[in-house]
Amino acid sequence: MSAPAAKVSKKELNSNHDGADETSEKEQQEAIEHIDEVQNEIDRLNEQASEEILKVEQKYNKLRQPFFQKRSELIAKIPNFWVTTFVNHPQVSALLGEEDEEALHYLTRVEVTEFEDIKSGYRIDFYFDENPYFENKVLSKEFHLNESGDPSSKSTEIKWKSGKDLTKRSSQTQNKASRKRQHEEPESFFTWFTDHSDAGADELGEVIKDDIWPNPLQYYLVPDMDDEEGEGEEDDDDDEEEEGLEDIDEEGDEDEGEEDEDDDEGEEGEVKENLAKPTKITFKEFMLFWGVYIYI
């Protein structure tokens, strides 16, 4: 006969449960401490990787300079290269008014220069021919990141010619009626040179440095939508002309077919009419016919 099962008191059950909770909490705390140690190692490697990547970037930034210079010399041979590139870029074109485009037709060269340590900032230079808008030959804007990580920017003061300040055109030309229009002229592209409110979030500067400057040719070669539409309309016109000629040919064939049918019907009618008419012969012909027949 088996021994009766030992009874476990409620107090003992609670004691065991509390012990399990204490063990679980202790294990969790130890796991958290270990995770923190591992995370510190990951952060250390990330910092080391950033330093190595920066060294590589600095190295190749120097190697790229001769090619950037050669590219600038070749671009100088293409009229209106930079204004076309900016107009074709979706983000930059949204900032361009008609007068901005006119002024940018005098833009001959754009250069982006990252500072030697790269991480401290960069400068964008715009070179212009003599133009009716301002006296400057070069307009520049620099972006800096100081040791504390605070961004800042500074730029060339634009020396506008009399009555040609494009940054003031909105206040001078827009009236109440123009404000009610659905499509309003954007602020001038050149207001960017005077805007230093948020250097850390300068979208235009980042677009020029990171998107346009590495490969401006891809935007210069963007097909003109107006030309494409014009070619499409010409193709449609050619198709319509071809269809019209085909219809005329088909109508001509149908007319010829109807004429042929009419001719055939006419010939058949003549045959039937001839068959239907009785043949008349003279008595002399009749006797001559029978005389020949009897003789034979």
How would you write the strand order of the largest sheet? 1-2-3-4
The chain-level mean pLDDT equals: 78
| Total helical elements | 10
Please tell me the CATH architecture of the domain at 76-174 and 183-223 by its name.
2-Layer Sandwich
Rg from Cα: 46 Å
The CATH topology of the domain at 76-174 and 183-223 comes to Arylsulfatase, C-terminal domain
The largest pleated sheet is described as: 4 strands, antiparallel
Using the alpha-carbon principal axes, give the shape.
Answer: elongated
So, the CATH homologous superfamily of the domain at 76-174 and 183-223?
Nucleosome assembly protein
**Secondary structure tally: strands:** 4
State the share of residues found in helices, binned by percent: 55-70%
User: Would you tell me the structural class of the helices and strands?
Assistant: alpha+beta
Strand content: 5-15%
Uncertain regions spanning at least 5 consecutive residues: 174-183, 274-278, 286-296
CATH class of the domain at 76-174 and 183-223: Alpha Beta
Report on this structure:
- With 296 residues, this protein is of the alpha+beta class.
- It contains 10 helices and 4 strands.
- It has helices spanning 10-75, 81-88, 90-93, 98-104, 169-173, 176-179, 203-212, 217-220, 225-276, 283-295; strands at 107-114, 121-128, 138-145, 151-155.
- Strands 1-2-3-4 form a 4-stranded antiparallel β-sheet.
- A hairpin with a 5-residue loop joins β3 (138-145) and β4 (151-155).
- The protein is elongated and about 85 Å long.
- The termini are far apart.
- 9% of the residues are buried.
- Residues 9-31, 156-168 have a biased composition (Basic and acidic residues).
